From TrEMBL:
Belongs to the CDP-alcohol phosphatidyltransferase class-I family. It is found in: Membrane. Keywords: Lipid biosynthesis, Lipid metabolism, Membrane, Phospholipid biosynthesis, Phospholipid metabolism, Transferase, Transmembrane, Transmembrane helix. This is CDP-alcohol phosphatidyltransferase family protein. GO terms for molecular function: transferase activity. Its EC number is 2.7.8.-. It is an enzyme of class 2 (transferase). The chain crosses the membrane at residues 31-56, 77-95, 133-152, 164-185. PANTHER family: CDP-DIACYLGLYCEROL--GLYCEROL-3-PHOSPHATE 3-PHOSPHATIDYLTRANSFERASE 1, CHLOROPLASTIC, CDP-DIACYLGLYCEROL--GLYCEROL-3-PHOSPHATE 3-PHOSPHATIDYLTRANSFERASE-RELATED. The keyword Lipid biosynthesis applies. It comes from the Bacteria. It is a multi-pass membrane protein.
Amino acid sequence: MPSSLVPQQQWDTDAVWTIPNVISFVRLLGIPAFCWLIVIGNDLGAIILLVVFGATDWVDGFVARRLKQRTQLGARLDPIADRLYILATVAALMFRGLVPWWFVMILFARDVMLACLLPILKRHGLVSLPVNYVGKLGTLLLLFALPLILLGGHSSIGWPAAHWIGWFLGVAGALAYWAAGLLYVRETLHLAKDR
């Protein structure tokens, strides 16, 4: 097995209802409200909610380490919540006419590609691959880019600087997102070959 696929995380507990997991569940439940705020044009409310949920993304990890409540479920919920926020946000922005359909499809296609790896991973007793730093960078860039694109949009506040910085970060984030996806494909193919 490639060294990058060796589980390196020790879990503190198998419990589901830990404080960090509850924070992650609340974040997931906030996605529909966040998207609705974008769709109805309440951009300030959407950005405030995004900042709050972005902060909880850091808080849940901090609390898990501090209270020794790191769980395998929590490690899976975190990237799922990030992906859902990104995909839901770009879909809502596309609905508002602030991002083109092809940008949504680029991000969506990457996650479809990763979903195609699941049967191979399951065959080898894995549910997912460890999150890599390129993927974390892509997620971070996109989570910064999307609110800026919203603020820079013609149907929003219309700040030109926010528009251009948002799109610069968005393109960089999409490239990192895809680079991470290709690394996951490579690791999965190594796994399939080595077993």
